[in-house]
Amino acid sequence: KNKGLQVLKANSGFSSGGSTLLGYIGIDTIIEQMRKKTMKTGFDFNIMVVGPSGLGKSTLVNTLFKSQVSRKSAGWARDEKIPKTVEIKSVSHVIEEGGVKMKLTIVDTPGFGDQINNDNCWEPISKYINEQFEKFLKEEVNITRKKRIPDTRVHCCLYFIPPTGHCLRQLDVEFMRRLSHSVNIIPVIAKSDTMTIEERQEFKQRVRKELENNGIEFYPQKEFDDDMEDKSDNDKIRETMPFAVVGSDKEHQVNGKRVLGRKTAWGIIEVENPNHCEFAQLRDFLIRSHLQDLKEVTHNIHYETYRAKRLNDNGGLHPISSNDTQEKNP
Amino acid sequence: MQQKNLDGYVGFASLPNQVYRKSVKRGFEFTLMVVGESGLGKSTLINSLFLTDLYSAEYPGPSHRIKKTVEQSKVLIKEGGVQLLLTIVDTPGFGDAVDNSNCWQPIIDHIDSKFEDYLNSESRVNRRQMPDSRIHCCLYFIAPSGHGLKPLDIEFMKRLHEKVNVIPLIAKADTLTPEECQQFKKQIMREIQEHKIKIYEFPETDDEEENRLVKKIKDKLPLAVVGSNTIIEVNSKRVRGRQYPWGVAEVENSDHCDFTILRDMLIRTHMQDLKDVTNNVHYENYRSRKLAAVTYNGVDNNKAKGQLSTKSPLAQMEEERREHVAKMKKMEMEMEQVFEMKVKEKVQKLKDSEAELQRRHEQMKKNLEAQHKELEEKRRVFEEERANWETQQRLEQQKLEASRTLEKNKKKGKIF
């Protein structure tokens, strides 16, 4: 053990190559310690779904988290009329898997893009996102801070693009342009069982080009790639985005297996079959690999941008009313 | 009225054939309008319905088309000796902007302008050629959200159901499962009734068979359609459809979608009825509204107060014409008067200036004469003076002579 310690002393600081340890120290147990801690505390995840009504947003969220977590879970019939202005409704659930607890909040935006005149329908959404930042900021700035600040900030915004097959609509471009700097936007092509595979490819290419032309940086943003490994992973993901998804919470029998899908007269669309749609990819991306990254980008980048702007604008933090928050919209 | 039995064969049973032959020679016209947001498959459906490439693959998609609000394309289709001049009115950009208020206005204006054209050509003296470009049918495409109608859909249909035959269609129906489709259709019909929208009604007929067909169609409203012109092999049959990884959605399979019903209804059974309803109901509505407005104006112009014009519009038009002619005459007279007056004035002026000249002439003459006289006077005076002077001279001379003589005498003879 002495020899191991000697080696450490010789190398001051951490070199990226690393030094060969001559014995087992136990640094790697830190991962286990973090895991235990996380399991005990659990964590928050806030996801927002945006898109005109009828694109299967609620169904998709239910499918993603394999439980009835969305607002529309109670029955299929549409009793509520389209609201006259965009409303923000959030629903929270605590779900558990493998000992890990997650407080999942789904923020729905009924009325977005449904009116005849949709001018400024993104404003209530922008306001909501900034309000969450503001709440967090206030907590952070307090003299006596809570041990764990409740995190209501929106970590991810799924934007549903209608599958027209032609190009992005003006409304889509406007929304994404204005909000890509305050929240992680993940565009998805809704109800993609409308399109054949070729149509889907063409549509995706066109959408990607339009997003590029308009300077819209969707998540994962190129500028936040940490290293080469991240970059290559993210590049692959960026190539397939926007994901063409289909959602369903009904099960059917296919080849003796029960799968989630949609049954039509000419076949069954399997939601988790990668040949049929990209739902599985979206789910893996969102939950299994990039969940933590989404939270980090929100905290380190979007929140910090907001914070810096607020501090610069006010020259210090004073108790602010919600009216001010509205003015400070980026 | 009692129906009489004929004793022999007269021959007017061939009347339908004569009508038919005449119509075939004339050819038919049909104008169809398609309305809906971009990306709902309107162009594909038109291509599928008429088995043409009206909107070919090279036809630029909505993202590239020049932004016009109403576009017309004409195509002449021939089948079995019958020719159909089909006009498709497209509405690119409908409902695509962020603010879509009044996006229906260009469409309403277009329909009205077509009615107006027909009204004008009907009222003309020479009516040999009356091209019928009125919109006979409007296919409205509803996005397959699965929930219900959007506010834009309701607004549009409410404004157009009195002007044109509106047939609502559920576009891209392969998005919906059969149950979802059923629910969606029920919801839409409920909303249509709630908002009192009058969509195109299939007429009842005396024929039992046809009635059954009509009832079947009515149960399936609004029709859920899928369009495609690509041919795919299914079970060694060649069908038109859309190829998915999970199967092929066949366009002409009535289990898959209502395309065949739409096609049969639109082309094979109800095309003439659509034209008739357009002519008898929508056009007449427009016409009576338009002419009633003219009549209203006529009452205002006439000094007859409290006289409700019970004249028929034609008489009204006659009267207007007469009025117009009278007005024209009056204007003509007035103009003539004005002309004469001006002429008089001019003549007067000329006269005046002539008189003036004359006067001046006189004046100058007078002056001249006066001068002349003066000079004469002076001359006379001068003559007088000369005469005087001469006289004086003579006198002086005489005196001088006299004095000389005296002197002479003195010298000669001492004065006696």
TrEMBL record, chain A:
Subcellular location: Cytoplasm
GO cellular component assignments: cytoplasm
InterPro entries hit by this protein: G_SEPTIN_dom, P-loop_NTPase, Septin, Septin3
Keyword annotations: Cytoplasm, GTP-binding, Nucleotide-binding
Location of the Septin-type G domain: 41-313
Molecular function in Gene Ontology: GTP binding
Organism domain of life: Eukaryota
Pfam entry (one): Septin
PANTHER family from the UniProt entry: SEPTIN
Family: Belongs to the TRAFAC class TrmE-Era-EngA-EngB-Septin-like GTPase superfamily. Septin GTPase family.
Protein name: Neuronal-specific septin-3
Organism: Nothobranchius furzeri
From TrEMBL, chain B:
UniProt key word Nucleotide-binding: yes
GO molecular function, one term: GTP binding
Highest rank taxon of the organism: Eukaryota
A Pfam entry, by short name: Septin
Keywords, comma-separated and alphabetical: Cell cycle, Cell division, Cell projection, Centromere, Chromosome, Cilium, Coiled coil, Cytoplasm, Cytoskeleton, GTP-binding, Kinetochore, Mitosis, Nucleotide-binding
Any one Gene Ontology BP term: cell division
Location, primary (coarse class): nucleus
Annotated Gene Ontology cellular component terms: axoneme; cleavage furrow; kinetochore; midbody; septin complex; spindle
Keyword Cell division: yes
Domain Septin-type G: from-to ranges: 26-293
Compositionally skewed regions (Basic and acidic residues) per UniProt: 396-408
SUPFAM superfamilies found in the cross-reference section: P-loop containing nucleoside triphosphate hydrolases
Subcellular locations according to the entry: Chromosome, Centromere, Kinetochore; Cleavage furrow; Cytoplasm, Cytoskeleton, Cilium axoneme; Cytoplasm, Cytoskeleton, Spindle
InterPro entries, A to Z: G_SEPTIN_dom (IPR030379), P-loop_NTPase (IPR027417), Septin (IPR016491), Septin7 (IPR008115)
Region called Disordered, residue ranges: 386-416
PANTHER family: SEPTIN (PTHR18884)
Similarity section: Belongs to the TRAFAC class TrmE-Era-EngA-EngB-Septin-like GTPase superfamily. Septin GTPase family.
The name this protein goes by in its record: Septin
